[in-house]
Design a protein that fits this description.
By secondary structure, the chain is mostly helical. Helices cover 92% and strands 0% of the residues. The relative contact order is 0.14.
């Protein structure tokens, strides 16, 4: 399914963004 594949591709980016926000706080 394309949606699940897209989510798998986005997960690393989401984790990086979350780490960036948590690092700023």
């Amino acid at each position: 399914v394309e949606s699940t594949l897209a989510m798998q591709n986005l997960q690393p980016k989401i984790k990086a963004i979350q780490q960036r926000y948590s690092g700023n706080q």
